[in-house]
Amino acid sequence: MTQAMLEVKGIDVFYGASQILFGVDLTVEKGQTMALLGRNGAGKSTTFKAIAGIAPPRRGEINLAGVTVSGRKPYRIARAGIGYVPEDRQVFPEHSIEDNLVIGTKKGPNGEDYWTLERVYEAFPILAGMRHRMAGRLSGGEQQMLTIARTLMGNPEILLLDEPSEGLAPIIVQAIGDLIRRLRDMGATILLAEQNMHFCLGIATHATVVDKGQIVYRDTIEGLRANDAIKQRYLAI
Ligand SMILES: Nc1ncnc2c1ncn2[C@@H]1O[C@H](COP(=O)(O)OP(=O)(O)OP(=O)(O)O)[C@@H](O)[C@H]1O
């Protein structure tokens, strides 16, 4: 049996006294692009925050390549190989694109150094063309790309993308989609949270649906595409 890259096992997450996640199970195998779908407020971002160690689960555990990472501080989880790209694009605005990328440079947990400045510029030609521009002067879509690129510079084992298409113009959404597809085709392991199911249908290989803090469905993306009942019930199309 192949070992899962990411295994979320029965996590309960609370914000203060309110329980937000109820026994969430989620598995991502190496090389999969898993879409985590659900309505606004369903618990997608909270699941990501739990994995990244920002909202530590009260029960359950999270394993990366068989090693338990839940309970560690966020920086140690990042160092273990979880590359988390939060919803709010976080760039260093007073620094150039190139400086932002260099700041993110790190070998992977097993010494991997596939992602170098050169390779990132190859994958993100739009960033290469303006490498000396201040990050604060980029558009929202360009900042989103820079945040993804900077996270890749840390050579993560798995990339967590929280609603990368949110608030962006359709043409930029398409460019971000093309980029994620390229990463997928290179064999990257990706967990992608989205409200926009249509965006995921052309990108993801698998889908998990969360509703009211519980997992209600998991299948291949083809399975989801063919399942009108699930789409209507949980994804409001
Ligand atoms: N810091 C917080 N304190 C209390 N409740 C919160 C907090 N953050 C989120 N919630 C609540 O947790 C639930 C799940 O939110 P979450 O952000 O995980 O949903 P989501 O599926 O990512 O939706 P969105 O698309 O809006 O980001 C919502 O009911 C939300 O109101």
CATH superfamily: P-loop containing nucleotide triphosphate hydrolases
Order of helices and strands: EEEHEEHEHHHHEHEHEEHH
- Walk across the major sheet and give the strand order: 6-7-8-3-9-10
The whole-number mean of residue pLDDT values reads 94
CATH architecture: 3-Layer(aba) Sandwich
Explain what the structure shows.
With 237 residues, this protein is an alpha/beta fold. It has a single domain, classed as P-loop containing nucleotide triphosphate hydrolases (Rossmann fold), CATH 3.40.50.300. Helices cover 34% and strands 26% of the residues. The protein is built from 10 helices and 10 strands. It has helices at residues 44-52, 74-80, 97-103, 117-123, 125-128, 140-152, 170-185, 197-201, 221-225, 228-234; strands spanning 6-15, 18-28, 33-37, 59-64, 67-68, 82-85, 158-162, 190-194, 206-211, 214-220. The strands form 2 sheets. Strands 6-7-8-3-9-10 form a 6-stranded mixed β-sheet, with helices on both faces. A 4-stranded antiparallel β-sheet has the order 2-1-4-5, covered by helices on one side. A hairpin with a 2-residue loop joins strand 9 and strand 10 (214-220). Helix 3 packs parallel to helix 6. The longest helix has 16 residues, at 170-185. It is globular, with a radius of gyration of 17 Å. The mean pLDDT is 94. The structure holds adenosine-5'-triphosphate (ATP). The site of adenosine-5'-triphosphate (ATP) has 12 residues, from strand 2 and helix 1. The site of adenosine-5'-triphosphate has 12 residues, from strand 2 and helix 1.
